Amino acid sequence: MSELMLFPLSSTVLPDGKMKLRIFEPRYQRMVKWCCEHNVSFGMCLVDNSQRKSQLSSLGTEVKIVDFDALPDGLLGITVLGLRRFMSESIRIEQDGLRIATVNFLENWPQELLSAPQRFVGEQLQEVHHSFPQLGELYNECFYQDANWVARRWLEILPLSVEQFDHLAGTENCHTAMHFLSEVVENAARDEKAKLN
């Protein structure tokens, strides 16, 4: 068992994923300062604030800060890199509202190439990165033939519920996620094509 400070967000990262974060709440400024001073990581998880009480995903990702800068508005900006997945076993809340989770780390998904029918999912991710360069530019190298990498990047950007995220990202391999993504991406492409006709 390990402990990680948590940064809940309406979108998150998975292993090998990158995200830019804007840090403005005092509890998270404290978290970032501690992580930088002690060279430690923190955890990110998905949060759903649509209900009266916030719901957190059980699955999260340990992340490390790989870059930081002062934003034009004077706030702190950081870039994080996803390291490994974890399951939260229990969460305690400190006086300023910072959550600290006791976690169990999960094995990374085994290496796997996209099958021929799944290559469309990788190609469409590449299109997304071209259309939204702020996503693609985060990566020095992209792996559009790697089923794990492609599945994780899609799960980071799709609007998933906490339950969907836990189900799709918490499995032992990428098969469940790729089956889901194949349907979603192909249906979206079909709908887009129908609009143009």
Provide key terms for this protein:
197 residues; globular; five-stranded mixed barrel; alpha+beta
Q: In words, what does this structure look like?
A:
There is one protein chain. This protein has 197 residues and is of the alpha+beta class. Helix content is 36%, strand content 31%. The protein has six helices and six strands. It has helices at 26-38, 119-131, 133-136, 147-157, 162-169, 175-196, and strands at 2-9, 18-23, 42-48, 55-70, 76-93, 99-105. The chain has a five-stranded mixed β-barrel. The protein is globular. The termini are far apart. The mean pLDDT is 90.
Spell out the blueprint of helices and strands.
Layout: E1 2-9, E2 18-23, H1 26-38, E3 42-48, E4 55-70, E5 76-93, E6 99-105, H2 119-131, H3 133-136, H4 147-157, H5 162-169, H6 175-196
Parallel strand pairs: 1-3
Antiparallel strand pairs: 1-6, 2-5, 3-4, 4-5, 5-6
